[in-house]
Amino acid sequence: MRNLIALLLISITLTSCSTDESTNQNNNDAILGRWGTFKLIDDINNEIEYFVPYDGITTFNPDGTLTQIFLGTSTEGTWENLSNGTYRFSLFGFTAESEVQFISNTELTIYNDEDEYTEHYRRIESDSELINKVIGTWQLIEDCDDLSTTESDTITFNSDGTGFIDDGINGDITWEITNGSMYMTLLSFPNSDPLIVNIVFDTENKMILEFDIIEYDIQCLVRTE
Q1: Of 103, 173, 197, 209, which residue is the least packed, with the fewest Cβ within 10 Å?
Q2: 18 has a pLDDT exceeding 90
Q3: What are 171's strand-pairing partners?
């Protein structure tokens, strides 16, 4: 497991007309909410590409509209559930029908049969909800599946956007959450690029941080306070 400070130092195609009836049907659609692309699988070569931070944040609204934020630019589009796992998405002037599969309430895939790749999306809470969940002191664990195997390293996130890493090297940090991803800066290197991390909550007291610095890596933490 990499040292947290070392990590810091290394620093859809998505047309439909909406009617009152379709809006009512959309109110219960599983796709509603805020989703971020975190993984792309090339189904021909079976290659996986991870996205840290999330590669675009798409919000699906009950009225059949959608909003996608990509590289700081917001674009409007539409979506429609055609049934049998097929959805029609319109964005950037293009319209496509794609297969959507819900892996769980928090993860879905969209298959592009023209290019033969599968995009994996993760449901993302609002930034304010994520901030409230992150605040506190967390301890790193060696094995994400074994909470009893712990390290002495801890990281504290304060409500004012400051924090502290205690891992043998130690250091003050600042942090913020934007579009579902956390941006951390080590104060002893204020001019360095912030470390960007995707946040996943397995439970309220177990947090997974996804890094992409040299290669894709994860750190698992459990709440101590």
Answers
A1: 103
A2: no
A3: 165
User: Where do the domains of the chain lie, and which CATH numbers do they carry?
Assistant: 4-10+127-223 (2.40.128.280), 20-123 (2.40.128.280)
What does pTM read for this prediction? 0.81
What is the C-alpha to C-alpha distance for residues 213 and 215, in angstroms, rounded to an integer?
5
3 and 183 Cβ atoms separated by less than 8 Å: no
Local structure of residue 209 (DSSP, 8 states): E
The pairs formed by 176-179 with CB atoms below 8 angstroms and a separation of 24 or more are: 177/127, 177/130, 177/131, 177/134, 178/127, 179/36, 179/53, 179/54, 179/57, 179/69, 179/127
Q: What is the pLDDT of residues 203-217, one digit of tens each?
A: 889 999 999 888 899
Question: pLDDT digits over 120-165, tens only?
Answer: 999 999 999 999 999 999 999 888 887 766 668 999 999 999 999 9
DSSP 63-107: TSEEEEEETTEEEEEEEEEEETTEEEEEETTEEEEEEEEEEETTE
Q: Which residues of 84-102 are buried (b: 16+ CB within 10 A; e: fewer)?
A: eeebbbbbeeebbebebee
End-to-end CA distance of the chain: 23
For tokens 């496509």, the residue is 96
Q: Which two tokens stand for residue 67?
A: 């909003």
